[in-house]
Amino acid sequence: MRMLLASALMFVALVGAVPAQEVRERVIVGLSQNRISITANFDGSEVLIFGAVHREAPPPAVGPLEVIITVTGPSQPVTVRRKSRVAGIWVNTDAVAVERAPSFYAVATTAPLETILTGPEDHRFGISVARRIRAVSAPEDMEDRDAFIEALLRVRAAEGLYQTVENSVELREETLFRARVALPANLVEGDYQTRIFILRDQRVIDAETSIVSVRKVGLERWLHQLAQERPLHYGLLAVFIAVLAGWGAAFVFARLRA
Amino acid sequence: MQIYLPIAEVSVNAFLLLGLGGAVGLLSGMFGVGGGFLITPLLFFIGIPPAVAVATATNQIVASSVSAVIAHLRRRTVDLRMGGVLLAGGLVGAGLGVLAVRWLTQAGQTELVMKLCYVAFLGLIGALMFAESLRAHRRASRPGVAPKRRQHMMVHRLPLKMKFRTSGLYISAIPPVGVGVLVGVMAAVMGVGGGFIMVPAMIYLLGMPTKVVVGTSLFQIIFVTAFTSVMHAVTNQTVDMALAVLLIIGGVIGAQYGARLGARLKAEQLRILLALLVLAVCGKLALDLFLPPEELYSIAVAGRG
Question: Would you kindly state where each structural domain of chain B is located, as residue ranges?
Fold first, then answer.
């Protein structure tokens, strides 16, 4: 009897272990570029994210493989303001401060998000954009602070800064995948974190991250740094250029007329 | 050709900015106005953040005023002493104005206050110019009646009298300093040179002779806008050099053609057109304030207007 129980337990353990071993799938990722340079004629860019699912055994039969790719820009504190009518004109009256909101966020998936991702998994990994907005502080007496968060998502989505593009990840034979993420022209400098999740049965089996660095270069970088780090020099330089240009123009046109 | 503006952090068509600078330069050359009061609202309309628009416009005005003052210095139509007194007031006003912009930006009200100021001033100036040019138009067709100039006696009664030889005046320094302060605040808050307020104030309030008025006002504007520009760069980091350079290039070229075009065209009819343009810009800004906006919510990233 004891033997039987032991072997039964062993059997259960084996059965339990086998799928776990079989499901051992890993994701391997590549990016078309690790650096994006904001130059004087920068007008947006695109990142191609591609990769493969590595497995030692044939794919398990527990539901299709799904891929979710997210790209997160540097987080910033933002203030969301709402206008209301005061004495006939529209004035900013209410405000909600958000401690951390990503300056850019894109989600690309192989299928509609709600069919492949459950709430708890979303919460655990912070996948949908709403999960990336943190530490909201509203006045005590404000009843509709959620409206401000919705507005933040809506306005940024309209500017192309928050994107959810379902079915945009191409997946071939549950192994090779690729997706393109469009970055708009009004990008903020910093490190953009790219996360790739593979899921089966609404569960994340593996995830991998990678960084795309977005930096101003050349003259753009020099001007921006000067303005931030030595504002007095920057201001004087701006005035010097203006005086020189004004004087130069008067001189040139006087010569032309003569 | 798109250009990415390093401070405004937006991507704009470079030719649009050159054209904007050129068009406003053309108008300022034709009418002898600074153009700041047109360029700043036009920058709002193309999506430049208001704080950047105002700070950068002051930088552009430096260039156009330097360009214009050279001819006046050559003709000796600049009252340097009066310019200095106006400037003393102007620097104080500009300092106050820059601090006001900083405070307003933190409170989220910069855009509102700027637009309100613009609606009030453009409405006033546009209406006055329109009435004036209609009258001038009628007068031109009925010659013989010279306009009479009134002089206020207040400038003679106040203390701290100074002698202004170029203008041939012996008046108190208090009213010119006051005019300077007002114009300085406007330069910082609205991104204008303030010539459209200063010129009438010089003629009607201070009683200065018309021939030195424009040169002296330009002289004062150069220093006040240069100071404002540096102050904005230091306190708010909102001067965009790339934007300023494009506007300046368009502006100086436009101004040269405008001056020649203005000499050939009928002045009264042109003034009516300018008045209508000013009123149109005013109307557009007023509509933004009074009509329900499409999006009630706006987002401000900390530290930026």
Answer: 2-140+150-290
Return the pLDDT at A1: 53
How many Cα atoms occupy the beta-carbon half-sphere of B102 within 13 Å?
Answer: 14
Query: Per-residue b/e over B251-267, b at no fewer than 16 CB within 10 Å?
Result: bbbbbbebbeebeeeee
To the nearest 10°, report the CA torsion of B87, B248, B40, B85: 10
Q: What is the pTM of this model?
A: 0.79
Which chain B residue is nearest to residue A90, measuring alpha carbons?
B289
- Residues in chain A within 8 Å Cβ distance of B15: none
With a cut of 50, list the residues of chain A below it in pLDDT. 10-22
Q: Where are the domains of chain A?
A: 19-216, 217-258
A42-74 confidence digits (pLDDT tens): 888 888 999 999 888 777 777 788 999 999 999
* A192 three-class SS: strand
> Residue B291 has what pLDDT?
86
- Asked if A181 and A169 count as a contact pair (C-beta separation under 8 A), the reply is no
pLDDT tens for each residue of A200-237 = 888 898 999 999 999 888 888 899 889 989 999 999 99
**Cβ pair B228, B60 in contact under 8 A:** no
- Cα dihedral: A112, A115, A120, A125 (round 10): -40
Residue B169 phi, psi dihedral angles, 5° rounding: -125, 150
Beta bridge partners of A107: A70, A164
HSE, side-chain direction, 13 A CA sphere, residue A6? 3
Structure tokens of B187?
A: 């330069």
With H, G, I as helix, E, B as strand and everything else as coil, classify residue B162.
strand
Burial (CB count within 10 angstroms: exposed 0-12, middle 13-18, buried 19+), residue A147: middle
In total, chain A counts a number of residues equal to 258
**A244 backbone φψ class: left, alpha, beta (φ>0; ψ -120 to 50):** alpha
Instruction: Out of 2.20.25.90, 2.60.40.1120, 2.120.10.30, 2.60.40.3880, select the CATH number for domain A19-216.
Output: 2.60.40.3880
ipTM of the complex: 0.83
User: Torsion angle, CA of A184/A188/A194/A197, rounded to 10 degrees?
Assistant: -70
Helix and strand element counts for chain B (H, E) = 11, 5
d(CA B54, CA B190): 6
Q: Which residues of A touch B65 (CB under 8 A)?
A: 246
DSSP letter at A57 equals S
Contact B293 A243 (CB under 8 A): no
Nearest to B237 among A82, A186, A227 (CB): A227
Those residues whose C-beta lies under 8 Å from the C-beta of residue A5, and which sit 6 or more positions away, are none
Inter-chain residue contact B296 with A83, CB threshold 8 Å: yes
